[in-house]
Design brief:
- This protein folds into two domains: about 100-250, no CATH class; about 270-480, no CATH class.
- The chain is built from 16 helices and two strands.
- The protein has helices at about 15-50, 60-65, 70-85, 95-120, 140-160, 170-185, 190-205, 210-225, 235-250, 305-320, 340-350, 360-375, 390-405, 410-425, 430-445, 450-485, and strands at about 265-270, 285-290.
- Strands 1-2 form a two-stranded parallel ribbon.
- Helix 5 (about 140-160) runs parallel beside helix 7 (about 190-205).
Length: about 475
């Protein structure tokens, strides 16, 4: 089972060992220093209690205190016990078991906070279900891995910087406990073993680490060797398939469970019994059932609803035209040509938006994403990550962080589309990490309950990105052939 979880080989690298040992010694020395402090206080208290009174006692006083030595000893012991009970709140507990217990409670609390963070995304769809983040807090491996995931999410949301924050000590503990857990996989249910490894793979994934490929490849091997996806509960099936698609999105790996299909699905027909709330299921990457973008007007502020409908339809037209399909009218039945989209987008971007105008910022964000699509798909730039898109994606990053989820209520897949465009166009690690974390947030909340639509959106985006890469390669080869001809 050693191949199931691989942390850069069978042993830690030298630098990782040093980091782990350093962290351990910091904790040990901190406890030793605190223990010495309390021991010195106890010694000082004993010396003070034994120090004679400067005035010699009288014979009567000596007779009265002759039998009080035992009482003084008991009183001194009680005083020491009371001092230990009322230590400074920031003082490290002397008992190592108590230290581990406190750390465990902190990790459990962090995992609970992340579950609440996921649950907030249900405001977009108008219904509420349990999130797909359900670690078993009775297992040490799940506690450590859950803490790592939440730490990585927190770093991405708050914008921790251009460099990835490392947690070598906790990663070491997580992998060690996971290895112990996996060693007994033969007597455990398949989903019990798969779940913590999937979560560990997710942690590495949105940090864009190649270790995610190792973890999730082992998941694929283990599932296929134990009978396939259908042997697990539906919850775990959805979780594994969603993680597989997100891995393809983040790290350009091939899909292990399913395939992209020959072409994107422009209009998706959902199955009977599809769980839907008060929401628009469509976005510029896919239309669902008989919906059109005029339905978005009921979820937008009256001040922007006409412009928002035009922007979403224009972005959908760019997508359809790129794949040589017939475009639709920009404003529904008004009969305006699709070429008006350029004028609409430019007019929105030329109009300054107040910093406290949340509906205006939402409209601006969608217009920015549509303009990046127009510029990229028209061939004006080589790809989404071209420097010409840098300013637009920076504005998308700032707007999405400021606006918040509630402003996108009823537009769940429009929000996913905006973050996908931001992820593809961003070159800064901090922005890429934030955008993909928001996509993961939607995926593991309402996305796993609406697998048909969410998977269609992700796969259509992958089709689009792959087509742009192929176009870039074709132009590069053509240019090389031309230069070779001379």
């Amino acid at each position: 089972m050693a191949i199931f979880v691989n942390y850069e080989g069978p042993k830690l690298a030298t630098e990782q060992k040093q980091a782990v040992r350093s962290q351990v010694m910091v904790l040990v020395r901190g406890r030793q220093k605190q223990a010495k402090k309390y021991d010195a206080e106890d010694v000082q208290a004993r010396v003070t209690s034994r120090r004679p009174h400067p005035r010699a006692p009288t014979i009567t006083a000596a007779r009265n205190t002759r039998g009080s030595g035992k009482k003084q000893l008991v009183a001194r012991q009680q005083q020491q016990q009371q001092k230990k009970r009322h230590r400074h709140p920031n003082a490290a507990p002397l008992n190592p078991y108590d230290a581990l217990l406190v750390a465990g409670h902190q990790k459990v609390a962090r995992c609970g906070s992340y579950s609440c963070y996921l649950d907030e995304a249900f405001v977009l769809v108008g219904f509420r279900q349990p999130s797909y983040f359900r670690p078993d807090m009775s297992k040490a491996a799940c506690i450590y891995i859950g803490w790592l995931l939440t730490a990585g999410i927190l770093d991405s949301v708050r914008g921790a910087g251009d460099e990835v924050v490392a947690y070598p000590y906790v990663e070491y503990l997580a992998v060690r406990e996971l290895q112990r857990f996996v060693d007994g996989a033969g007597v455990k249910e398949l989903h019990e073993v798969v779940y913590p490894v999937v979560i560990l793979g997710m942690f590495e994934m949105f940090r864009f680490s190649p270790r995610a490929i190792t973890h999730l490849a082992a998941v694929e091997m283990f599932i296929k060797s134990r009978g396939g996806l259908h042997t697990m509960p539906e919850v775990m099936q959805n979780l594994v398939v969603m993680t597989d698609t997100l891995e393809c999105l983040c790290l350009d790996t091939p899909l292990a469970f399913g395939d992209l299909g020959p072409c994107p699905i422009m209009r998706l027909v959902t199955a009977d019994g599809f769980l839907s709330g008060d929401q628009l299921r469509s976005c510029p990457l896919v239309l669902c059932d008989d919906e059109n973008f005029s339905c978005a007007a009921q979820y937008a502020d009256p001040a922007i609803h006409l412009q928002l409908v035009a922007v979403l339809q224009a972005a959908n037209n760019f997508f359809r035209q790129f794949f040589e399909l017939e475009a639709q009218s920009v404003l529904g039945d008004d009969g305006l040509a699709a070429s008006v989209a350029d004028l609409i987008l430019d007019a929105i971007m030329d109009t300054p938006t107040a910093g406290n105008d949340v509906p205006g910022l939402l409209l601006e964000t969608c217009a920015l994403a549509a303009r990046i699509m127009r510029r990229t798909l028209a061939g004006s730039v080589d790809g989404f990550d071209d420097p010409e898109n840098a300013l637009d994606v920076l504005m998308i990053y700032d707007n999405t962080r400021f606006v918040g989820l509630k402003a996108w209520k009823g537009l769940p897949y429009v929000y996913v589309w905006v973050n996908l465009i931001g992820f593809a166009a961003a070159t800064d690690l901090r922005m890429r990490s934030y955008f993909i974390v928001e996509v993961v947030r939607c995926a593991f909340s309402y996305g796993c309950y609406q697998m048909e639509v969410f998977q269609a959106v992700l796969k259509n985006f992958l089709h689009l990105r792959n087509a742009i890469v192929c176009r870039r390669m074709t132009l590069t080869y053509a240019a090389a052939d031309t230069m070779g001809g001379f």
